[in-house]
Amino acid sequence: MTAQLACFDERCRARFPIDALIYNCPRCGALLEVVYPPPEQSAAELKTLWRNRRLSNAPLDQSGVWRYREFIPFLDDYRRVVTLREGNTPLVEAPRAAAYGGLDRLAFKHQGFNPTGSFKDNGMTCGVAQALRLGTRRVACVSTGNTSASMAAYASAAGLAPVIFIPYGNIAHGKLVQALEYGARTLQVEANFDQILALVRQLAERLGIYLLNSINPFRIEGQKTIMTEMLDQRDWRVPDWVVLPGGNLGNTSAFGKALREMQSLGLIDRLPRLAVIQAEGAAPFYELLRARDRSRLHAVEHPQTLATAIRIGDPVSWPKALHEVIVSEGVVEKVTEQEIADAKAVIGRCGIGCEPASAATLAGIKKLTAARVMASDADVVAVLTGNVLKDSDYIHRYHTGSLEAPDGTRIMANFGNAPEVVPNDADYIARIIA
Ligand SMILES: *Cc1c(COP(=O)(O)O)cnc(C)c1O
């Protein structure tokens, strides 16, 4: 038996060949996932194998994704894999952020250290590998930004033609310019995210383009290794909590799947709890967990948040994410624009920095410790999803007191650090610095 695609819906569970060109279950329409037979190696053998690969100069071994290839064995030929050495992201202690969040200790797993500056690279190297296996020439995605940047880079590196669809006027500049620089055909469509998705599905079929949107199950496989690498870095000590922002909920799905699979392979002995944090103006998953009927997610028609990476009203991966939150005894919290902005500045003062969506994690931790859902002495890892330079305009506005929430309210620069204009006068400058 080899890797297969399986319908995620437990009432269907239909299986399909791993190279079937499908995005949803052809029988029932539900999400797909990749399933595998168990690996030949024991847990101890895998841990040793993966650790030893850190000494290797082979490109696959240097990748923080493909180093763990026995955990994502959907390919039978690795020769065409394109790696930009994604993953390999640091796990950094942040005492100041811990204190702000009401914790004794806190470590950030910083996915912003990836080649294009976000965790999308972990998944994209796998998505593009699958596109190459299928023999497609063109790949496409609809994106709020980081997916486009990542897809553009990996597709171009692999010699494929990337086509990017973005809602007109709804993207952080740092991300758009990456897509342009990496050579993607970039189409700004005058429609919202969901309308464009329908359009692209139609075009994909008509033109034979492979879609690399976040429901792509191979991207999810790549993102699983974020958890594997984090546990490897902790010598397989399981934290009490893993905290992450929630947008389309692909990462929540990937982390949950990774943790369950690592437990069943005997790599870890228990599951951490997942804490998914959403922005108040784009929190349909938060509402779903509070609803009596969890069989349907009610989309937010006009999602609003300055954290554009999580500005998603109708998250596609919600059925998987719901499963993972329940299985891990997790929680979903929501935070305001002011809370995100302040948490972000605190992460900045740790010398770490991140993009707005990532800072929702620390804002959420502060709320969860205040509510005593999260104990102050809990062992917590928060995942920073994107690089500080992705949205520099936001940062400048915050520190100069000119940042406005989508509803027009002014965001207070509680941790503001505005530049000062000074005369060319040594005595004066010496006085104000002293
Ligand atoms: C894509 C993205 C998210 C949201 O992740 P989902 O998997 O869609 O929930 C959060 N932060 C950043 C920086 C992202 O690029």
Write the topology of this structure:
Blueprint (H helix, E strand, L loop, with lengths): L3 E4 L7 E3 L14 E4 L7 H10 L6 H4 L28 E3 L1 H7 L5 E4 L9 H15 L3 E5 L3 H12 L3 E7 L5 H9 L3 E5 L3 H15 L2 E2 L5 H17 L7 E5 L4 H15 L8 E7 L4 H7 L27 H10 L3 E5 L1 H13 L6 H15 L9 E5 L7 H8 L26 H8 L1
Helix pairs in contact: 3-13, 4-5, 4-8, 5-6, 8-9, 9-11, 12-13
Bound molecules: pyridoxal-5'-phosphate.
List keywords for this structure.
alpha/beta; Rossmann fold; six-stranded mixed sheet; four-stranded parallel sheet; 15 helices; 13 strands; globular; binds pyridoxal-5'-phosphate
Question: How does this model look, in words?
Answer:
The protein is an alpha/beta fold and 434 residues long. Among the domains are: 1-34, no CATH class; 91-114 and 218-399, Rossmann fold. The chain is 38% helix and 14% strand. The chain has 15 helices and 13 strands. The protein has helices spanning 43-52, 59-62, 95-101, 120-134, 146-157, 173-181, 193-207, 217-233, 250-264, 284-290, 318-327, 337-349, 356-370, 392-399, 426-433; strands at residues 4-7, 15-17, 32-35, 91-93, 107-110, 138-142, 161-167, 185-189, 210-211, 241-245, 273-279, 331-335, 380-384. Strands 4-5-13-10-11-12 form a 6-stranded mixed sheet, with helices on both faces. It has a 4-stranded parallel sheet with strand order 8-7-6-9, with helices on both faces. It has a 3-stranded antiparallel sheet with strand order 2-1-3. α6 links the parallel β7 (161-167) and β8. α3 (95-101) crosses α13 (356-370). The structure holds pyridoxal-5'-phosphate (PLP). Pyridoxal-5'-phosphate binds at residues 118, 120, 146, 214, 245-252, 309-310, 355, 357-358, 385-386.
